[in-house]
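Researcher: Following up on the earlier apo prediction. This time include the ligand. It's flavin-adenine dinucleotide, with the SMILES given after the sequence.
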Amino acid sequence: MVEHSCDVAIVGAGPTGLSLALFLAAQGVRTAVIEQEAETVVQPRAVTLDDESLRAFATVGVLEAIRPLLLYGYGTRFYTGDGRKLAEVSANATRFGYPCRSGFSQPELVSLLARRAKDSAQTTLLFNGAALSAVDRGEDVLLEVSGSSGESSISARYVVGCDGANSTVRSQIGVTLDGSSHAQPWLIVDTINSPDDARYSRFFCGDPRPYVVVPGKGSRMRYEFMLLPGETAAEISTCRSYSGCCRVGASSGTLTSSGLPSIASIRALRSGGAADA
Ligand SMILES: Cc1cc2nc3c(=O)[nH]c(=O)nc-3n(C[C@H](O)[C@H](O)[C@H](O)COP(=O)(O)OP(=O)(O)OC[C@H]3O[C@@H](n4cnc5c(N)ncnc54)[C@H](O)[C@@H]3O)c2cc1C
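Model: Understood. Below is the ligand-bound prediction.
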């Protein structure tokens, strides 16, 4: 069994865990980041960064590396279902010196954060190992890790659970979710090669179907459609044209990968995640 020792063991190499590792490294704190997968996330996920995120990345010196990955600064428009504009937030809106909304691709960003963490002398990245248990021994915490790369144990002063929505660490320490998540399922579609160059996300509120269009770097575009009562993601995904789901504002583009019959990069998820975009 391989043994490691560090100040802080971070479970999960998502944006939270890797950002924490970079913050701690900047303070000279030694960390080990444990990730159960072989690499950082590859599926499309978050597409919008806010100004506070950019400020945080600037603080740890990674913003300039991240900037080429961003659609730096875009606005928001809200429409009725039949296309009348209700409200607009300017693309130039800033609060903390950075644009309030910038487009990005989570897999690209997380991969860059992992490379920066790997380059840090303070940080050890351990992929292919799931954290199974953490035992508080008073002086330290002993974390047991198991995966395709074998078994290891990590002695740390602190363990931080950055292991996402189904956190093992959270369940081990008995932390539960206060409140509830949203009940509506949404269908997420990402495209590339969109001819739509609007620097606005567009929220279509109401009949017949609420949906969201979010611009990304280059010619990427994110569409999010709320499923109507009784619909399933599989039913919608068999539409040959996703523009059939939109009354206003749809543009054609190339789907980012193939999967279900005609729409790829599809995620049916609970609207708590989708509504963040
Ligand atoms: C389709 C979709 C669209 C989204 N759009 C947006 C958006 O536009 N804006 C926005 O702000 N958010 C959005 N989100 C949410 C955003 O992706 C998440 O909030 C974000 O990924 C959370 O980051 P995290 O680091 O906390 O967790 P995660 O990204 O889930 O990372 C957790 C990591 O921990 C690893 N892990 C889990 N258990 C263990 C274990 N026991 N041992 C070791 N490793 C473990 C996982 O493999 C994973 O790599 C979206 C999510 C989805 C699914």
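Model: The mean pLDDT is 84.
Researcher: Noted. I'll compare it with the apo version next.
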